[in-house]
């Protein structure tokens, strides 16, 4: 099955990837998409993950057509 | 219950002057609590020339709507409004406007603060600061 | 640090749009917390047609300035503004505007709430409500 | 010595007195001005007193030229 993976902000810049379509087997957890897309790069401890625009835990199993996002801690609002 | 993401500068007081709180005749609400966060020209000891605010279109709006829904569940409110800038900002420009209307002031005060803390801690926005000769992503937010 | 007592209607958002916080260039403050209290059209179960707000000229201004001074001592603030109506009010009209500017949002939130609670508990203002066929002095204030 | 006494809001309406000049002996406490001006009328429990536009306790001794005020609990701000 096929999922769309997106990276944001500093993560996107550092990895040089904004978005990527990827073919994965059924039962793949969200966190595993990271190692598939950026092998050898350790998953940052403070990274946040979303599936279809909702926060999810790293163990969440992806489904066909999901949009998965990895991003750094958020810094909206003001100081 | 309105969420607006704007990619150009806005004047929070004009926005509020023009906003009509949902389903509320003038005499029905007694309290309005507002918070405006603006870009400062210094951070962590450095002068900041400008700032770029990135967001996750779709998820950001969803998340802001979700915290408004939660505030409306927790308190008796007439209406909530959140406006947040994205894109290129200059020092002094408003970044965020949170406004809450309610019959009693306690609910308005509590809910406006709740919305700001929730927004800061989990709404998908990221700041990149342009210093004199370099730029950097802001790594962590200040606590409330 | 400004206190204004007005005997005619005011628009809080226009006041804020025109106000320039004391000695602060645009980039120097990051947080503005505002509270607006408006006249409602009901109180204690009765429809209120209009309201008269009496004050003690001189003492009222002194007292408001005193609570602003106290807020500036307790928190690190850029500026505070209090505007309060007196005279004849109609439902929906703003009664009070409290605004606080500071570098950090916590101080702005805390100080604006402090100013409102202090204002309500001790600033010499008295409300007289005009009901359909009678009038009454409001006897006690709601707690925050 | 001479002091100026003022009443506000419901108190002013009920007593029918807005302001009054009164001659008092040295050592008169603020609260005693009430009984001098409205004899027979008990001092309301929740009444507030000010001397020269500052809150004072009932026992505060007045001085020549003072402006003394009696008023009901305040009800400013919004609900």
Describe this structure in words.
The complex is a heterotetramer, with two copies of chain A (79 residues) and two copies of chain B (144 residues). Chain A has a five-stranded mixed β-sheet. The mean pLDDT of chain A is 96. Chain A is of the alpha+beta class and 79 residues long. The N and C termini of chain A lie far apart (42 Å). Chain A is globular and about 40 Å long. Chain A has one domain: Beta-grasp domain (Ubiquitin-like (UB roll)). Chain A contains two helices and five strands, in the order βαβαβββ. Helix content of chain A is 19%, strand content 28%. The longest helix of chain A is centred in the middle third of the chain and has 8 residues. Chain B has one domain: Alpha-Beta Complex (Aldehyde Oxidoreductase, domain 3). Helices cover 28% and strands 35% of the residues of chain B. In chain B, α2 packs antiparallel against α3. Chain B has 144 residues and is α+β, with helices and mostly antiparallel strands. The radius of gyration of chain B is 16 Å and the shape is elongated. A four-stranded mixed β-sheet of chain B has the order 1-6-8-2, covered by helices on one side. In chain B, β3 and β4 form a beta hairpin. The chains are: A alpha+beta (79), B alpha+beta (144). Chains in contact: A-B, A-C, B-C, B-D, C-D. At the B-C interface, α1, β2 and α3 of B face α1, β2 and α3 of C.
